[in-house]
Design a protein that fits this description.
The complex is a heterodimer of chains A (312) and B (341). Helices cover 72% and strands 0% of the residues of chain A. By secondary structure, chain A is mostly helical. Chain A starts with a helix and ends with a helix. Classes of the chains: A mainly alpha (312), B mainly alpha (341).
Amino acid sequence: MTGTTTTAATEEPTPPGTGAATGSGAPSGGPGARARVPGSAWRTTLRTAGVVAVAAWCLAPFYWMLVSSLRRPADIFDVSLWPSPVSLTNYANVLDPSLGFVRSLGNSFVVAGTTTVLALIVGVTTAYALARLDFRFKRLVLTGIIATSMFPVVSITIPLLKLFVGIGWINTYQAMIVPSMSFALPLAVWNLTSFFRQMPTQLEESARVDGCTRGQAFRKVILPLAAPGLFTTAILTFVMAWNEFLIAVSMVNKESMQTAPVAVSKFTGASQFVAPHGSQMAAGIIVTVPLVILVLFFQRRIVAGLTAGAVK
Amino acid sequence: MSLTPWRRTSGPAARSQLHGEGRMAAFLVSPTLLVLGLVIAYPVLSAVYSSLFSVPDIDPKTGFIEKGDPFVGLDNFTSIFSGAGDRFWNAFWNTSFLTVTSVILETVIGFAMALIMHQGLRGRAWIRASILVPWAIPTAISALLWRWIFDSEGIANSVLNTKVLWTTEGFQAQVAVIIAEVWKTAPFVGILVLAGLQIISSEVYEAARVDGAGPVRRLWSITLPLVKPALLVAVLFRLLDALRMFDLPYILIGAGKQSVETLSMLAQDEASNVRFGPASAYSVVLFLYVFLIAFAFIKLLGADLLGARDQSARGTRGKGTGKRPRQGTGSGRNLQKEATA
């Protein structure tokens, strides 16, 4: 047993653990116990008010997007908190094939999906090496990978744009996927490394005692067990790639190749007499809903993944 | 660290094992380095190179655009400091102002959110889900959403009972960008800081309470210092991300608007007008600016981006070497037992 695994075993599960315990309503011990010691009533009220304020901060604008999207185009400037006749006109307008929005959703799926898969495939072995093997320049490699993740995207987009103009890649998927690797790959490696570090080393050691080579141990023991980590990394990478805007808006000028965020930002409305706000909000809801569903289902994993690099 | 101890290797054999591990590592790491070299190192070098060229002139005789960009050396950089640099400096100050203001606000608000979430007992799962919503909404979409909120006849003006033209040139446009940015990223800071809060042992607080420290004192003398590493990393992430801000002002206010044009927007605008020389020069300057800020932040404040991970790696290596002989003989014996059984 090595140091990482001990610290990982004692420290790592704490945040999700407490989260799960309190989330299921059980009065947890640990940090939670402190909170109920001098439990005067107005303290609880204050605490509830704080929680409500945080939730309102996060959800109110999103709620406004939803409400606006459900209004009839004619009532778009209403300020009532619920649309009086609920109308799906905006959604019907947005999903009209002539607008090309559905196609842009498909483009987004292709670009974000391919980027995610490529980043995982390339990143997984590197992450394993960084977590498990001892080699020279390891610190340098790690620093380099982390440094690249904070690169200004525009600094790499401009030269690549120039290159892609030269080789006729403008308005292609690969022109969006290749530059996206610049942020997706460091993110994937960073996350996977911390997941591999949390896995106990005895697993592969015992696999190797049983006669596996290192490669076999990796494929047959580590990879299946790292599936949750791979999955979390995939979600985070996908969200990042799905949200990308600068590359998509620079590399593509043909409407049929636009990704969804670019297409939505260029909406001008179904006709020039209708304010585009309603259809923009409807499109915004459609683009966001897959991500919000991911968040609802995998919130604990996402939080663990987001904080993996920051706290330890 | 996970050398194969059961082989009971010693001396030269162990060294060759280590050597093999290095070769293995090189094999495993090289795909990533190759890809990053292609999508990062090559573009950066190429940007530096093409920043030395200007835009092609129009041939005075034929009236056609001359082929090839003329080499101008460092002119693209020196022109920043002469009269032609006004647009650059405007973008530079916009970037710095928007970054500093929004990062300060989102750190304070995010920290407050983390404290609240750390206190709240019930509904933590719901809070966690809702706090991820602003993070999950694509920036482009949130920019549109806020453009609608800040519409001249939108909800912001009717709630505030004002008639501000938020999305037009001027200070109000900067305010709009900052509000939208802080809305989206304060919860992210909150998530990172909350994770830092959760690893502080409650015993520390108990001890402080016994010693008679009030809530403010506990916040100041325990929470802040102990959460500082997580907070610094969160702030560094946010700083570097805000410095490359592009989509939010681009969509919320519009491209080429003087009051919110950032360096990323300026460089992208120049590139989309096929002025690659100046565009590359601006992107190189932005890159250096980001690098400088990151370096200063890590050196001066001791933000530990990979330090923590690396320390743990070094720790294991240290412990690993310490333990290795014992472990080695232990499992070696086991193996022998297995062999004899």
